[in-house]
């Protein structure tokens, strides 16, 4: 469940991504910049990573492309080249 009380499994990846970027503050300012990531990739984007991982465990990778892509977008916003 998200901080505003909405179930995350029904949220679009873009909404989850926007919500996670709001919580991360510095990520919003680094979008589009070519700076080196400030975190290790394993520690970046914990919200989208958790949703992606839970979906894959429950439904398989093929059914979770929207969560996988949302996590990739978040990682790119953090400065990772994925």
UniProtKB/TrEMBL annotation:
Keywords: Chaperone, Copper, Disulfide bond, Metal-binding, Mitochondrion. It is found in: Mitochondrion intermembrane space. Its main location: mitochondrion. It holds the Pfam family COX17. GO terms for cellular component: mitochondrial intermembrane space. Cu cation binds at residues 42-43. GO terms for molecular function: copper chaperone activity; copper ion binding. The keyword Nucleotide-binding does not apply. PANTHER family: CYTOCHROME C OXIDASE COPPER CHAPERONE. Belongs to the COX17 family. This is Cytochrome c oxidase copper chaperone. It comes from Quillaja saponaria.
């Amino acid at each position: 469940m998200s901080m505003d009380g909405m179930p995350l499994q029904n949220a679009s990846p873009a909404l989850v991504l926007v919500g996670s970027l709001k919580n991360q503050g510095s990520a919003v300012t680094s979008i589009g910049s070519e700076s080196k990531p400030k975190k290790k990739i394993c520690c970046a984007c914990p919200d989208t990573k958790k949703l992606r991982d839970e979906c894959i465990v429950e439904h398989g990778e093929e059914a979770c492309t929207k969560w996988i892509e949302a996590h990739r977008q978040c990682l790119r916003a953090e400065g990772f080249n994925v």
